[in-house]
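MODEL INPUT / OUTPUT PAIR
PAIR INDEX: 1
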Amino acid sequence: MFVHPTLSEAHHPAKGDKLTFALVFVPCFVLLLFVAAIGQVLGVSWKSWLPGSENMTNIFSGVSAGIYTFMSHIF
């Protein structure tokens, strides 16, 4: 059975794509985690600042949801 090359590539991203994703995700996660931690310590409602994190129960899932929402807009 012949599979179109672009369809098979969509399911298996290239190694460079994974590296690019990590190089964008990790710094953004660290930055927003820092901002959320400062907001948490100061008692500020930081979840409203990150789209997608409004209904999350802890800081890590909230920041992850915000990052994935942000990354879906840039990729």
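PAIR INDEX: 2
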Amino acid sequence: MAEHHKHHGLFHHKKDDEENTPVEAVILSDTTTYPDTAYGSGYTETTTTAVVADEKDYEKEVKHHGHKEHLGELGAVAAGAFALHEKHKAKKDPEHAHKHKIEEEIAAAAAVGAGGYAFHEHHEKKDAKEEKKEHDHEGKKHHHLF
């Protein structure tokens, strides 16, 4: 059978370029020879170690946090709209007003939480931009005349 695995779900998707990204590695090899003894003949043991240099993709990280920031903003808007909808229902349906008030307050809390998440991701994006800027200017001299 083919060794092809398909993931069905939301969180197991990989883009083609993520699977085949080249990785720089340094291979270290160490050979040890043990001499003959009274108990038996000697042997040689070789140990190989690969050290992978992982280069951080700063642009990808900035985009990633930007997308998550937008999702947080969208969640805040959606929850806020639902809270207003429930407030309107509470006025129009006095028989179930208490239920609608509770749902309104839950939606308002969700809107605040989503807004906080968007704010958090905004600062993560700013930090990633600063890291990218520091990485890009590493080793370069800047002469400011004014």
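PAIR 2 NOTE: The helical segments are 16-19, 58-92, 97-136.
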